[in-house]
Design a protein that fits this description.
There is one protein chain. The chain is of the alpha+beta class and about 775 residues long. Helix content is about 30%, strand content about 25%. It has 22 helices and 29 strands. The strands form 6 sheets. The chain has an 8-stranded mixed beta sheet, sandwiched between helices. The chain has a 6-stranded mixed beta sheet with strand order 7-15-14-13-8-29. Strands 16, 17, 26, 27 and 28 form a 5-stranded mixed beta sheet that branches. Strand 13 and strand 14 form a beta hairpin. Helix 12 packs parallel to helix 13 and helix 17 runs parallel beside helix 18. The relative contact order is 0.13.
Length: about 775
């Protein structure tokens, strides 16, 4: 692997000092105090329509400035999902524009039907209690399969059958014929092969980021300025413009430091409403911050999904044919809609397919009266991975096969470049899965522990488990991938870097600084990055999601850095025409071809700014479109103790090993993996947004009742890597930010199966579910 100077260094985060000392300013830190506060009035039914709202008592409450209802706002629908906009905007509006600032049609429990603006939150809270609403109620449906049968009225008028979308991908008739079959079902049911069916489920998980969703808006110079904790500032600007029916240039969005998002803040939640309120009250500053309770049921967690799976396989561990049908509950609104379950079934199909002759991959996304759902870390893939690994774990266990050997025989390889998408746009140009597995096996002591735990009896048992994962990088070819970077040579020879891509806690600013330094030929410490995004001055980028930024936005950084480097050397030639041969830049100096110092970089920078004959601020501003995509992969191994009478699983050891190509900053990657593993463990054992099926009301919208793993629940988290540079990444890199959240849940499930022989198909595997499963099998 080629040795690089800055890429690959475990440099300290560029924002570390400000964050650990408390100097970093987040949205609420910057909000002018005092300012007006806004609070939402939420519907107290799960399905129906607002007949009337009486706000007269609320308006009389001291400190109340205004009360607006669903009958006051524009009758304009807009999209909220943080996706890039397309030239074919009519199609995007038709497919995703289903939200209003406030709505008289109640589709979910807690829908937004009015807003109070007051001098402080106390006034707002008092006023909210004095709003009187009359509803026309409709029956509530939360079950997706039941909702597919149709409701009257439908959840969304444009979808009379409540089906948002349906997709189907099957092995072609020509390919089936070559294998001797007419249909996929015939391949599945071929008597020469073993046939298995399972049903798996995954429930809704919430992001539980520390900083709540918060924004404040004011008017300045005729513009609405929105300061927001968002992953997608340029998208927020566009959506505010659409929602208010004003030119997008009349909106300015600023994103300060952000305290976590994990996908919640890839949606445009309340910024348009806040901007509209601001405009109605003459441009005064208004802050709108969600409570922790509101975050659970009025933002967007991971979609609940069910999977019906069939598989045929032979005695030599070869998969023969597979079929998956997935049903995804998107709740009352589209948000990210069908893209999430497509990721689920695609990852199911991509991960294991080496020996397969037939596949059937089908998916439905369905409206219900359930709470909002949307993007969450790894965007549908953990659910598909759960389904795939439940199947693989069962087959290995039932046949007495080694789970690692069985998976390795069927996992994707770098020889299947064109198997992921036609033409190989999404491709495994490199695949380090076998090497990842060897590292994971060694750490977990796979063979030793398998033998040691094999014959345990009694109420407390031990097991080891494994799961593999696959993940694409970015969203091409399914959506637009574009980014821009701007770099400038400062007067002292340092570099100014501006990105539209957003730092959300993952370390993006640091790796962008390293990539810029590598491309230009300076030290990372010489690069000053502007962490705040401001849509009036920041280059365009669609934002932080899909593990895209280092891959896509990093390509823009590299291109801009290389352009600036050329400009610096060209200017050096201008200043020193007698310099010999091609010049190069390193160690803050310009060298000629024989190694003589032509000038220092600070000397050149001063000349560039102040030369009487040829002053020139040297800078580069580059936009790129990325049309490639790359497959990252890896594995998780877990060692667990299972206390069956208590229904308790303790994770003793766990390791995530992944091939994410070249690592830009290994220390940051390790931190990313630790965080993702913690979320994956929570997804497997604790976290479930519980919804009352009769009312569609969330039952546990507090940190007391929604269980996430704490430091007391987590073992030492081990991360390791296999670096196989990818030819399409700007420096050989590919996805890393979301991948570690994918496979821990399935690895723990496999370890429980190894320990007890019990098969669990619903995640999370809570104590209640574990206890019931063990009792059903006669183990307690």
């Amino acid at each position: 692997m080629e040795k690089l100077r800055e890429v690959g260094r475990p440099v300290v985060r560029v924002d570390a000092y400000d964050k650990v000392t408390g100097r970093a300013k987040f949205t609420d830190d910057l909000c002018p105090k005092p300012c007006l506060e806004a609070k939402i009035y939420h519907a107290t039914i799960g399905n129906g329509r607002v007949v009337s709202i009486d706000t007269s008592d609320a308006e009389k409450e001291p400190g109340v400035v205004a009360v607006f209802t669903c009958f006051d706002v524009p009758d304009t629908c807009y999209p909220v999902a943080g996706h890039p906009w397309y030239a074919d905007s009519a199609a995007a509006k038709r497919d995703q524009a289903d939200r209003k600032l406030l709505d008289d049609r109640v589709r979910i429990y807690g829908d937004n039907i009015a807003v109070v603006v007051g001098e402080d939150t106390v006034a707002c809270d008092r006023a909210l209690k004095k709003i009187h609403v009359e509803y026309e109620e409709y029956p509530v449906v939360y079950d997706a399969l039941e909702s597919m049968k149709g409701t009257n009225p439908p959840v969304q008028d444009r979808k009379p059958d409540n089906i948002v979308a349906h997709s189907l991908a099957r092995t072609s008739e020509e390919d089936l014929a070559r294998a001797g079959y007419k249909t996929v079902e015939e391949a599945l049911e071929d008597p020469k092969y073993h046939h298995v069916k399972i049903h798996a489920e995954s429930r809704e998980q919430s992001q539980v980021h520390i900083e709540t969703c918060v924004s404040y808006c004011y008017m300045e110079g005729g513009k609405i300025v929105c300061v927001s904790s968002t992953q997608i500032p340029h998208v927020v600007r566009r959506v505010i413009g659409q929602a208010l029916g004003i030119p997008w240039g009349d909106v300015r969005v600023i994103k300060p430091y952000i305290g976590g998002g994990f996908g919640t803040k890839q949606d445009v939640h309340y910024e348009p409403l806040n901007a509209w309120i601001c405009k109605q009250i003459g441009g005064r500053c208004v802050k709108l911050e969600l409570s922790r309770e509101e975050l659970f049921w009025d933002t967007s967690g991971r979609q609940p999904k069910t999977f019906d799976i069939e598989c045929s396989y032979d005695d030599e561990m070869n998969l023969h044919a597979r079929k998956i049908v997935a049903y995804s509950n998107t709740g009352g609104y589209v948000h990210h809609g069908h893209a999430l379950v497509l990721n689920s079934v695609n990852s199911f199909r991509w991960l294991y397919h080496t020996q397969e002759v037939a596949t059937h991959s089908e998916a439905y996304t369905i409206h219900t009266n359930g709470p909002h759902t949307g993007a969450m870390r790894a965007y549908g893939v953990p659910e598909g991975n759960w389904a795939a690994e439940c199947l693989m774990g069962d087959i290995a266990y039932d046949n007495g096969w080694d789970g690692v050997e069985f998976r390795l025989k069927n996992v994707y390889t770098d020889k299947f470049v064109d198997e992921f998408t036609p033409g190989g746009v999404i491709a495994a140009h490199t695949c380090g899965i076998p090497e990842c597995v060897e590292k994971g096996k060694e750490y977990i002591e796979w063979d030793k522990k398998k033998a040691e735990y094999a014959n345990e009896t009694g109420p407390i048992r031990h097991g080891v488990g494994v799961s593999f994962f696959v993940y694409k990088t970015a969203v091409a070819p399914f959506a637009l991938e574009t980014a821009t970077a701007a770099v400038t040579l400062n007067q002292d020879g340092s570099i100014q870097l501006q990105m539209g891509a957003t730092e959300i806690g993952q370390g993006a600013d640091t790796v962008f600084s390293q990539m810029a330094a590598e491309a230009i030929g300076v030290d990372t410490e010489d690069v000053h990055i502007v962490s705040f995004q401001d849509t009036d001055v920041t280059p365009y980028d669609s934002g932080a999601y899909a593990s895209r930024q280092t891959y896509v936005s990093g390509t823009a950084v590299k291109k801009a850095g290389e352009t600036l480097r050329r400009k610096i050397l060209d200017y050096a030639h201008y200043l020193h025409p007698s310099a010999q041969g091609e010049l190069c830049l390193r160690d803050h100096k310009i060298f000629d071809v024989v190694g003589n110092v032509v000038c220092t970089l600070p000397e050149l920078a001063l000349e560039a700014y102040y030369n009487l004959g040829a002053a020139n601020q040297l800078h580069a501003h580059e936009t790129i479109n990325v049309h490639t995509n790359s497959i990252a992969g890896g594995c998780t191994f877990a060692d667990v103790t299972v206390d069956m009478p208590l229904g308790k699983v303790t994770v003793n050891k766990i390791i995530n090993v992944q091939d994410s190509g070249r690592l830009i900053n290994p220390k940051l990657v390790e931190q990313q993996i630790h965080g993702g593993m913690a979320q994956g463990i929570g997804y497997g054992l604790f976290e479930e947004l519980q919804v009352d099926p009769k009312t569609a009301r969330v039952l546990n919208p507090t940190l007391l009742d929604y269980k996430i793993p704490t430091t007391m629940d987590l073992p030492d988290l081990k991360a390791d890597f296999v670096e196989k540079p990818d030819p399409t990444g700007p420096y050989g890199n590919k996805a890393v930010g979301e991948t570690p959240a994918i496979s821990p849940a399935a690895a723990i499930r496999d370890a429980i199966l190894d320990a007890t022989g019990c098969k669990f198909y619903v995640e999370p595997m809570t104590p209640q579910r574990l206890f019931e499963g063990f009792k059903k099998e006669g183990l307690i």
